[in-house]
Amino acid sequence: MMKRLEETVQYIRAAYPASPVVGIVLGSGLGNLVGEMTVEKEIPYSELPHFPVSTVEGHSGKMIFGEMGGKKVVAMAGRFHFYEGYSASEVAYPIRVMKLLGVQTLLLSNAAGGMNTDFKVGDLMIIRDQISLFTVNPLIGKNESGLGPRFPDMSEPYNKKLIETAVGIGGQLGIELHQGVYAGVTGPTFETRAEYKLLHILGADAVGMSTVQEVIVARHMGVEVFAISVITDLGIREEENIITHQEVLEAAAAAEPKLTAIFKQLVQAI
């Protein structure tokens, strides 16, 4: 693991010697935040040693380096998912690379199914906690002590100060921000109605197929994390409609300007 990481990091440093302090991972249909960056370098995943390659529509598949809000940042336009056939460790590999490049704070976005009956399509939910028991933990296997402890604490996966700052930004911009618990599942099927109800009973407000493994690895390495879900569909609903990936992408695109405004000001405040 360490040898692979070092090779990836060396390749990136040769192409882009600056050290980003903020990392950003953009979920399905949420890639336009990079338009707010002063882009200095783009590297396709296919060129990076030991990197997986994203296979999902809405994920463009490159690391983008530059500046935003006076900070050096690196953005992942497209993430990796367990359901694509990658291991949990591979899914979270880019987060380890970000940390070794210098990233101290990680901002995540995702498209999620809403289970809180107060939510509607297009809402934004700050993730205050997560349930990751339905996915494979990326730390299973031999622990690399140079990356983090064998048994990392997960009592505060999402940084409370960053949440408080984002809530203040939302208030200033007039953007309603919910807070809730995100449940991570493997996918690629959308959940059955019974599964949505079960997850909600267990305490989840939204569900998705990403994020939790990235967060576990980030916290393992001491990176502070903030995340927002865009509610792109409603799992607990009365009408007999079905959910499609195209509808998820459309809902994410509609909500994206709000998400971009929050992330842009949050980077400035870090």
UniProtKB/TrEMBL annotation:
PANTHER family given in the database record: METHYLTHIOADENOSINE/PURINE NUCLEOSIDE PHOSPHORYLASE, PURINE NUCLEOSIDE PHOSPHORYLASE-RELATED
Family the entry assigns: Belongs to the PNP/MTAP phosphorylase family.
Statement: the UniProt record of this protein carries the keyword Kinase: no
Record domain Nucleoside phosphorylase: where: 22-267
Native organism: Flavihumibacter stibioxidans
Function: The purine nucleoside phosphorylases catalyze the phosphorolytic breakdown of the N-glycosidic bond in the beta-(deoxy)ribonucleoside molecules, with the formation of the corresponding free purine bases and pentose-1-phosphate.
Pathway(s) it belongs to: Purine metabolism; purine nucleoside salvage
SUPFAM superfamilies, per database record: Purine and uridine phosphorylases
Name this protein carries in UniProt: Purine nucleoside phosphorylase
InterPro entries per record: Nucleoside_phosphorylase_d (IPR000845), Nucleoside_phosphorylase_sf (IPR035994), Pur_Nuc_Pase_Ino/Guo-sp (IPR011270), Purine_phosphorylase (IPR011268)
Gene3D superfamilies xrefs: Nucleoside phosphorylase domain (3.40.50.1580)
Membrane is among the record's keywords: no
Top-level class of the enzyme under EC nomenclature: transferase
Domain of life of the organism encoding this protein: Bacteria
Keyword terms: Glycosyltransferase, Transferase
EC number(s) given by UniProt: 2.4.2.1
A Pfam match: PNP_UDP_1
